[in-house]
């Protein structure tokens, strides 16, 4: 049985095939068609050739097959930046088992929400994550009435099977399973979301493979590319824009970094002569500072890709001077559409825009509140459909009815301006989300958790400006009773106790008597954002006078 998703209408699918965008090949080709002797992944002191990656993922697929996993099943995966991430991904792909790849920063709250939606047959995680130090969390995961899933852990474990054991044990079983069909769901991407429940994004082999292939052309990736994977490897950006998958497609090499911290990364860049890196703006700021002292380490770096959140023009301008390499801006979304500045664009375009769509069949409209197209240079909401942009989230009919229109356009909630050359500049957002330096927080998710607190009557989460992160989060809290005695520290502890990922815990709490409301009675977040901006400003002016 294949996994359900909202398909592209037949006429669109036909067009995408006729253009050669959809090739009806499985993502497995990414590693199987590469020159097998080339090094695919460097991770710590280990180097894996494409042949290693293929054979290890095949061995693991046999193990999955023996467990009874088959096409149409799902897996919940949570791994840090290690080579095993790719071994596991391609092992699952071999059998047509579709993973959700949770971020390593995700916690009980997020993993439970994903497990509920996909009812995984297997969980593959790392003993480095506190949730998997023992079986306590796992045993809470009794998804529906079904049996608990299998568990496989990277690293030694006393309570679960270890991946290393599986890979080092021999088997005589033949792998008979096949990948799912190219027009079926290969895996799920994660949406930053704007609703109470994290949404899953079904990506097919056809659409994802195209986005990877086209990205490698735009970014000129070749077998000589050495790509530093410093952002969380499960994120759409380092996975596919062109990311590790783009590197695999051309037979290049991915160097895994445990974090984007400049000390760690500079050492890896110098040691392995890395040519391309991808960062979110806050990490870029740290690199620009560190490079003032150690530019020599970066001599091999040719391209710095920046995306995930708005990059300021002033930081953008520093990249070639301070890092000694070219800048590329990327406006992407796990739902599909990815915009790139091109390598041969003039410098002004590269520093003032977030690029243009990657192919001519990406349909992008910029619309006003009445749904009409705005003129070039005017601000409006970016809506899009195309050969690698989904037509619906997984099992979310109500939300889909809101964000996908009758013509299949995805309403991104991004406010942008398009210039005469088709380049987009992000100017704001019309969705209830905070973009904390590239990490997205759905306001409603946190508000709902806060509302479960016995002393809280109302809550509203809004963004506040931050010089390093671009935005941070501020929760306005209306207590049920005066003299409540609630403190920020208590609410942070409360949210952590519910197992919320750290980056979603509000950076600041403000206690107020009532929420300002819009004419229709919703919390007026425009007023709240302005309120916190003013409070921060008067605090910093106070600081200056002290
Ligand atoms: P997600 O849908 O969770 O994958 O997040 C994608 C969103 O991240 C986009 O819709 C934008 O809001 C934001 N984003 C990604 N890249 C950029 C960028 N270069 N500049 C500004 N916002 C960005
Ligand atoms: O933020 C994103 O989701 C993103 C940014 C850059 C993305 O999905 C991508 C490139 O592919």
Automatic annotation (TrEMBL):
The keyword Cell membrane does not apply. Pathway: Siderophore biosynthesis. Residues 445-522 form the AMP-binding enzyme C-terminal domain. InterPro entries: AMP-bd_C, AMP-bd_C_sf, AMP-binding_CS, AMP-dep_synth/lig_dom, ANL_N_sf, ATP-dep_AMP-bd_enzyme, DHB_AMP_lig. SUPFAM superfamilies: Acetyl-CoA synthetase-like. Pfam families: AMP-binding, AMP-binding_C. Keywords: Ligase. One of its GO terms (biological process) is siderophore biosynthetic process. Residues 35-394 form the AMP-dependent synthetase/ligase domain. The keyword Metal-binding does not apply. One of its GO terms (molecular function) is 2,3-dihydroxybenzoate--[aryl-carrier protein] ligase. This is 2,3-dihydroxybenzoate-AMP ligase.
